[in-house]
Amino acid sequence: MLAVFGHTNPDTDAITSALVYARLLSRQGVAAQAYRLGELNFETPFVLREAGVDAPPPLPELEAGAPVALVDHNESAQSVPNLSELTVTRVVDHHKLGDLTTAQPAYLRFEPVGCTATILLKLHREAGLPVERTDARLMLSAILSDTLHFRSPTTTAEDREAVAFLAPIAEVEDVEAYALAMFAAKSDLGDTPAETLLKMDYKVFPFGDPASPQTMQRWGIGVIETTNPAYVLGRQEELLRAMDQTRAEEGLNGVLLSVVDILNETNVTLVLSATEEKVLREAFGVTVEHGRADLGHRISRKKQIVPTLEAYFTPES
Ligand code: MN
Ligand code: MN
Question: Minimum-distance ligand to the CA of 75?
Fold first, then answer.
């Protein structure tokens, strides 16, 4: 049985793409089961409820050599801790290639589109398989989620075409209203502990030149996409304490938390210490006031934050 899963601190794409890819493989005669690496965010339960689907179970401990398929990620820092002992047979992803290596030839499908689901739709078409209503719902939701309904600069024409194609199959008549309902669910954070808010959409990135290990740094970067940034920023002190604790616990060089206003497409990033302030000032040319850096319209971690930091920490590349 092939275990299919997305990244840790799963977002909607990581969950739904595991479900959709496992089902697609099963329809093609490959026994596959979807799993998750961690707890759901606040948006995904809404999506699963609307689609009438259960969340995938947590990934159990896998024996060395067990076959796995990765969706929506490929870097070991974002995957299961013993990934290097497992047999990666398939990867379907829309992120930059990281430190992935495989012992055997693997099926690798990477495309620079806005969402893994956009690639999964292509795989259905290439296999000549019709898209079922539930899968259409899940893929549509993932694309709206990852692209913030086409607001993100990661959006491509293929993502737009996929949504236009999937909406009638998914029986979503008003895509705009559905996307807003998803974002409202995501923003309904209640009294969620600051530590949980920080880790809901959080990834650790290695920066520097791997050829000279002494230059390597590890940064944790969280993003909170919300329609109510004032609520999140009102909890700045708690969040900074959670960031400080995470930096110590995970032995990180720095921790950033971007509060992204989905509707106005702006990013205010919380600044933990002089270390983060220096990097933000020098890498992005921004000023820091009251522990906040205004990163303007840089709302995509993948396309507008991480590449700038990579260039900053590896100047010669
Ligand atoms: Mn993701
Ligand atoms: Mn994704």
Answer: 1
- For the whole model, what pTM was predicted? 0.93
Measured in Å, residue 80 CA sits from the centre of ligand 1 at 15
Instruction: Give the number of other Cβ atoms within 10 Å of residue 192's Cβ.
Output: 12
Taking residue 151's Cβ as centre, other Cβ atoms within 10 Å add up to: 18
* 116 CA from centroid of ligand 2 (Å): 5
Q: For residues 118-150, b (16+ Cβ closer than 10 Å) or e, as one string?
A: bbbbbbbeeeeeebbebbbbbbbbbbbbbbbbb
Residue 184 buriedness (CB in 10 A; 0-12 / 13-18 / 19+): middle
Q: Are 12 and 47 in contact (CB under 8 A)?
A: yes
Helix runs in the chain, H state only:
12-27, 44-51, 116-127, 133-146, 157-170, 175-187, 194-200, 229-233, 236-249, 274-284, 306-313
Considering every ligand atom, which ligand is closest to the CA of 94? 2
State the distance from the centre of ligand 1 to the C-alpha of 151, rounded, in angstroms.
16
14 CA to centre of ligand 1 in angstroms: 5
Burial of 66 (0-12, 13-18, 19+ CB in 10 A): middle
203-217 b/e (C-beta count within 10 Å ≥ 16 → b): bbbbbbeeeeeeeee
Split the chain (317 residues) into runs of 10 and give each run's mean pLDDT: 97 98 98 97 97 97 96 96 96 95 93 98 98 98 98 97 98 98 96 95 92 91 97 97 98 98 97 97 96 97 96 81
Q: Could you give the dihedral angle defined by the CA atoms of residues 40, 42, 48 and 49, in that order, rounded to the nearest 10 degrees?
A: 130
Which residue has 């070991």 as its token pair? Answer: 76
Ligand 1 is an ion; residues with CB less than 5 A from it: 11, 13-14, 72
Distance from Cα 212 to the centre of ligand 2, integer Å: 30
